[in-house]
Amino acid sequence: MSAPSRTLLLWCLLRLVIRAGHSFATDSNGQQQDNGCASDSNVVDELLRTHRKNRLPHGGRVDVSTELWVQEISKINELRSEFELDVYMTEAWSDPSLAFDHLNPCKTNLSLDGGTLLRRLWNPSCCFVNSKSASVHRSPFTNIFLMIYSNGTVWVNYRIKLTGPCEKDLKTFPIDQHRCFLTYESFMYNSDEVRLKWINGNPITLLKEIRLPDYKLISYSALHVQRDYPPGRWHELIATFTFQRQYGFYILQAYVPAYLVVLISWISFFLDVDMIQPRTMLGVHSLLALTFQRAAKRVPLRNGYLSVVNYFTDAQLRLQTLTPSFEGNPNARKSRGAHLGRVTTKDNEALQMNLTTL
């Protein structure tokens, strides 16, 4: 092919590429879009240019819908009365200043990095006010998802690791229940500025079945309350989780052995009253076995009151302590019976002699 032909061919290919570039444009996400619409980056730049983060979206109270997804409940700490869990917390509200229908966008919603952009937008500044510790996951980046719809609806999702408080009453241990709470509210805005509410339907969702070594999640509920503080009234969303202790381990390790020891000690009641040494050995060994079992049983409970298992073991020890003294009564009764028997025999002999004389 001659040089002029090569030049002509290259020029034609260049014209085709230029026309294709005028027909389609590529946005920041790598998607081809018509040249007449605004790309995501242009829309975001325009929204940030006109948005005021310190101004309430409607100039008045903002309704914030909230939803809680429980990813995992990893641990319940009895000594510290707390539980650990990982959750997805979702917030949604309307902000007219972030509507971009008029910008002729290529997409009706924007999926953005919340860890970077959310701090530049107005948000209700909500948090778990009763948490002992809380942090947003950073694996490998800040786990905050932000989506803005063309009508101005803002949807934010946080992935959070939490440690929350629990209420416990160990008086019924090992058949006790624990109730754990999470309280969510706006830290900066009272009820005149932000109104929190659960979404309709099921505001709390378990992403998978919760399994713990010692507890079973038997119920969970969502509650909306208003609480008064010195600066005003705040809306609060409370999530309650109720756990039932799995008592099978304690039945096998505490109750069943104790019952067996007591039953074995009762064998002495069926032995002859003259077998004093075996009866005494059974009673003493049973008492030592109960004492050793109580000392060896390690139940990690630190409370200032007695539980059901404490009353149970104390009653068994008292019963076992009284057994030897109860076992001694038949010997005394036998001695008294033998003495009465001799007395009765003499009386009968005297009676027979009197009858013979008559």
From TrEMBL:
Subcellular location: Cell membrane; Membrane
Swiss-Prot/TrEMBL keywords: Cell membrane, Glycoprotein, Ion channel, Ion transport, Membrane, Signal, Transmembrane, Transmembrane helix, Transport
InterPro entries (UniProt xref): GABAA/Glycine_rcpt (IPR006028), Neur_chan_lig-bd (IPR006202), Neur_chan_lig-bd_sf (IPR036734), Neur_channel (IPR006201), Neuro-gated_channel_TM_sf (IPR036719), Neuro_actylchol_rec (IPR038050)
Gene Ontology molecular function terms on file: extracellular ligand-gated monoatomic ion channel activity; transmembrane signaling receptor activity
Listed transmembrane segments: 247-271
Any Pfam family: Neur_chan_LBD
One CC-aspect GO term: plasma membrane
CDD domains: LGIC_ECD_GABAAR
Keyword Kinase: no
Signal peptide from the UniProt entry: 1-23
Chief place where the protein resides: membrane
Family listed: Belongs to the ligand-gated ion channel (TC 1.A.9) family.
UniProt protein name: Neur_chan_LBD domain-containing protein
